[in-house]
Amino acid sequence: MTIQKHALIQRILEQLPPEERYSFSEHQIKALHHSAISLPKANHTINIRWSIPFPGQGIYLVFFAGKERRSRKRLLADRDFQLLPRAILILASLLGCAVISCLAYSQRMLAISKQNSASNLDESSNIIHPTVVPFKYNQDQCETSFREWKDGKCIDYEHNHTF
Fold first, then answer.
1. Are 161 and 129 within 8 A, CB to CB?
2. Nearest in space to 141 (alpha carbons), one of 126, 158, 155
3. Dihedrals φ, ψ of 132, to 5°?
4. Cβ–Cβ < 8 Å for 142, 136
5. What angle separates helix 2-15 from helix 26-37, to the nearest 10 degrees?
6. Can you tell me the distance from the alpha carbon of 27 to that of 38, in angstroms, rounded to the nearest whole number?
7. How far is it, in rounded angstroms, from Cα 138 to Cα 157?
8. Predicted TM-score (pTM) above 0.70
């Protein structure tokens, strides 16, 4: 960790204009290195790092989460703490969850109603619905197809109304 902190101070010094950089004494530079080493390490509750290899160079993704330690004054100064965007985000998330829940509930109710209507059809299919078969013109044709000839018409007593 000390090498990384030394590298941080080194980069800071390299970014300074030459006249400012050379104005630091050796003692001041050592004090900067020492203070960088003694900085507390930021521990986050969630610290996820992914390296993704790509041809030529890789990229990395980092996700940190933890308790906010900055003061409200600093958050306002950094313009990080804006209540309206957060409130809109929370409300939009809640609205999205409500819409998804309503859609899932309506799909469930639709499935239940379809199931009930299908069971009602099954129950009503046991009811006899006699019908006249129009393409049987004589008694032999009618009785050969296991139907009944009555009053000069071929009657089918096993007719399913859902057919």
1. yes
2. 155
3. -90, 130
4. yes
5. 130
6. 16
7. 17
8. no
* Closest C-alpha to 133, from 115, 148, 112: 148
77 Cβ contact partners less than 8 Å away, ≥ 6 residues apart: none
For 79-138, the pLDDT digits (tens) are 655 667 777 888 999 999 999 999 999 998 888 888 777 666 555 556 667 888 888 888
Q: What is the pLDDT confidence band of residue 37, given thresholds at 50, 70 and 90?
A: confident
- Cβ neighbours of 139 (radius 10 Å): 14
H or E segment at 64? strand 59-65
Q: Is 127 in contact with 160 (CB distance < 8 Å)?
A: no
For residues 41 and 1, give the distance between their C-alpha atoms in angstroms, rounded to a whole number: 9
Query: Which amino acid is located at 103 in the chain?
Result: L
Tokens representing residue 155 in the block: 């009657």
Q: Which residue has the higher pLDDT, 55 or 91?
A: 91
pLDDT value of residue 115: 79
Give CA–CA dist 158/140, Å, rounded. 18
* Radius of gyration of the chain from its Cα atoms, rounded to whole angstroms: 41
